[in-house]
Structures are given as structure tokens and as C-alpha cells.
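Lab notes, practical 5.
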Amino acid sequence: MENMRKELDVLKAKFKVIEDDRKIFFKDFADFLLDDPQKEAVSALPELEDGINRLASINGEKDLLKNKVKEINDLLDEKVRIEDARKNTRDVVRELEKANMSLYENMGRSGYQAYQDGLLKGEGFASVFLTLEEEKEKINTFEVELKRSGEGEANFFKKIMNRSREVYLKSNQSMRIRNLVKIYQKAGETIGEMDPVPWEENDSLKHAFLPFYKNREKQDELTKRDTELSLDEQKVRDKMEVLGVQRNSGKKIQELIDGMDFQDDKLDQEKFYLGQSWWGLDKKKQKEFSIPAELKKVKDSLDKADSELKEAQEILEKKIRVDELTERLKMQDKDRQKLENKLNQIKDDLNRKNSEIEETKKELESLKDELS
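Output from the prediction step:
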């Protein structure tokens, strides 16, 4: 019987394969029914109307989820594109600012020269160059003092003192010269923020200021572009907030994908029912449709295999049942034999007890007679 049980397990496994194949066939057949040219006629069948409506509803739910996933992915792509564009814009602006830093000193020097030549007029320019002129005056003072310290003869001690003072003066002069460069840079930067200088009238001004003005024009364009990108970025954030994906888009997308998978499972189930329902229609209605011979052949093959397996399973289950009943009968017969043996033993005990009772009665009667 154990071998038959193993054989039954094999049959059940084969039956499971057939069932899976039937599900696949019915789903594929449902796709065939819902395709042109038979779709319209199939949809008109009252027996299949509910199933087709359920399929349409599930497909609608799935499309909504699919569109939402696409919308989120599009927003994420747009967000990355804008962030990259803003980064590139800011990088270019920084490069232009860096390039301007290298232009400021020359702008300050050319501007100061033009100011001295009378090309740059007004109190604004005078205030810009005031610190510059004061610093240049201090440098000139150091130069005069250095020149004086080296003039004339002096004794040994005075020469030592003069040399110390020269070192001090040169050190301060170097510091002032370095500071003068910074003042030229600051002056050039300040002038650059003022109204454009008349660089067309002077080659030196043109050489110094035209690159800066071109850079500033590019900066203005890039700043405007960055502002536009910032507005676009905010719009994307607003849309993502509405969709609930501003912070954890990956989790939301996975939830939507899980929802789509769930809808796919429902679709497969409904398609299976639809395909199965069609084959349950009246044969006359089935004949109204032109079903490819290949599909009929597959259906017949599945039905035949299913029928053969069910028959084999039924026969095997009956054989197993016969063995089980035979084994049960043996056990029942064995139990009956035990009961019969026990009953016989009880009968013997009863007979023996009856004999003892009769002897007791006789003895009792005898004693009564004697006493009478």
C-alpha cells in the first residue's frame, strides 16, 4: 500500500502540472477572446459580461498605478536634470567669478590711470581711489626715507642704526606694496559694480574692463537661468509633495509596484475565469466563433490528460481504499475474536458460579431439614 500511496503522490503532482497548464491555457484563451476581431462579439455575450467588466475595471486600476509610477519617475528624472543644470550653472558662475578676481587688479590700475587722465570723473571715483592715493603716499614716504638713510657719511654705529632702519623701512614698504595690490583689486571690483566706464575711448580701459563686462553679462544670464531653474525645481517639489514622494520616493514606488503586481494576479484570475466560462457556454454559441484549430487541439489534449489522470487517480484511490478496508477488516475480526474469547471466559465463570450457588442452596436446605 505504501507504494500505491507514492504512486498517488506522483499522480497528484502530474495533476497539479495539468491544472497549471489549464490555467495558462484559459488565460491565453481569454487574451485571444479579447482581441480583434472576436472581441466585440464576445463582449456582447451576457454570460461573459460581468467577467469582461471586471477585467476592464482591474486594467483601469493597474493603468492608474502604472501612470503614477511613470509620473514619479519622470519627476525624479526632471529633478536630477534640474539639479545637474543648476550645479553646472553655479560652477560656471564660480569660474567667471574666479576669472574676474584675476581681472580686478588690472581694472583698478587702468581705472586709476584713467581717473588721473580725467577720463573717469565724479565724486564716486574720487572716493574709490582715495584709499589708493593714501597708500601710494605712504609708499612714497618710505621711499624718501630709504633714500635719505643711504645718503652722507656716518660712523660705524650710525651705519648699524641706518641699516636696521633700512630693514624696517623695506619691510614696511613691501607690506604696503602688497596691500596696494589688494587696494587695486578692491578698487577694480568696486568700479566694476558702478556704471560702465567709457572703455570705448581708451584702449587700456577696453583691455582691462571689456573681459569683465562680458563675464558679468554671462553671469547675469546664468543667474537668470538659475532663477528659472529654481522655479522649475520648486514646481517639481510641489508635484512630488502632492504625490507623497518628496522624502521617500523609493518606498512609494515599491508600494505602487506591489499594487500593480496585485492587480496582475487579479487579472490572471479573471482571465482564467473568463476563458473557463467560454468553454462552459452552450456548444451552439461556441460554434458562432472561429476558434483556431491549434487552440482546440491544446484544449482537447489538456482535457484528455486531465481525464486520464483523474481516472487513474480514481482507480488508484479505490485500490488503496480496498487495502485499507481489508486491513480494517482484519483488525475488526481480530477484535471480535478477542471479544468472543472474553465472552467464553465469562460464560465459564458464570457456569462455575451457578454450580457454586446450587451447592450452597443444597447445603442450606439440608441444614434446615435437620433443624426441623
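Observations recorded by the TA: Residues 153-157 have pLDDT under 50 and may be disordered. The first helix runs from residue 2 to 33.
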